[in-house]
């Protein structure tokens, strides 16, 4: 799993349903910041040395990201939000606006990252801002069939999500049968 030092024998990546919506809202937020910069250029000529280069840089990044968005590729807006945060921090009187933009940069990264689930002999770990750990003893069954991951909990809760292949993964992927056999073995041991 990305960002996790522990190596898992099996990692399942869940399909993202809301990535495009998050990216669209982020592009709109980038345009709002750009409009604020243009407004500041005209209303505070003394801060032109900061606002003009930032407006030009953000315009370039937004144009690049719009092109990626139109092609259906992943965009990266965290940089725009960090630039916005630094700009607000450097140019008063809106210095406190840097806080929401730093938060938006972190939330953008979290919202657009595909959720990964790591499976080891000891536990199952859901990736996220705060990783969630599940013991095998909490489950009745875990199965991957036709790209659908199903986890049946002993408390009658059912988790079912569609999976996707990791485009960055160059290793040979395990088959569904291998994964299901691994899960059955862990469920038997935890019994």
In brief, what are we looking at here?
The protein is 48% helix and 19% strand. With 191 residues, it is of the alpha+beta class. The two termini are 26 Å apart.
What structural keywords apply?
single chain; alpha+beta; PH-domain like; 2 domains; seven-stranded antiparallel beta sheet; 5 helices; 7 strands; elongated
Q: Can you tell me about this structure?
A:
With 191 residues, the protein is of the alpha+beta class. The protein starts with 9 loop residues before the first strand and ends with a helix. It has 5 helices and 7 strands; from the N terminus they run E-H-H-H-H-E-E-E-E-E-E-H. Helices cover 48% and strands 19% of the residues. Helix 2 (48-70) packs antiparallel against helix 3. The model has no long low-confidence stretch (mean pLDDT 86). It has helices at 19-43, 48-70, 78-90, 98-112, 176-190, and strands at 10-14, 116-119, 123-126, 132-135, 139-145, 148-153, 158-164. It has 2 domains: 10-15 and 114-190, Roll (PH-domain like), CATH 2.30.29.30; 19-112, no CATH class. It has a 7-stranded antiparallel beta sheet with strand order 4-3-2-1-7-6-5. A hairpin with a 2-residue loop joins strand 5 (139-145) and strand 6.
């Amino acid at each position: 799993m990305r960002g996790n030092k522990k190596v898992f024998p099996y990692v399942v990546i869940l399909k993202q349903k809301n990535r495009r919506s998050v990216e669209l809202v982020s592009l709109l937020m980038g345009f709002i910041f750009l409009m604020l910069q243009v407004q500041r250029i005209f209303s505070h000529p003394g801060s032109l040395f900061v606002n003009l280069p930032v407006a030009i840089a953000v315009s370039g990044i937004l144009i690049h990201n719009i092109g990626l968005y139109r092609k259906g590729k992943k965009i990266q807006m965290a940089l725009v939000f960090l630039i916005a945060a630094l700009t607000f921090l450097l140019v008063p009187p809106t210095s406190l606006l840097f806080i929401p933009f730093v938060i938006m940069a972190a939330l953008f990264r979290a919202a657009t990252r595909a959720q990964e689930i790591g499976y080891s002999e000891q536990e199952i770990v859901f990736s996220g801002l705060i990783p969630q750990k599940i013991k095998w003893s909490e489950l009745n069954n875990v199965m991957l069939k036709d790209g659908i991951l199903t986890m049946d909990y002993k408390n009658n809760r059912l988790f079912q999500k569609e999976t996707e292949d990791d485009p960055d993964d160059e290793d040979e992927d395990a088959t569904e049968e291998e994964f299901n056999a691994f899960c059955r073995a862990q469920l038997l041991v935890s019994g």
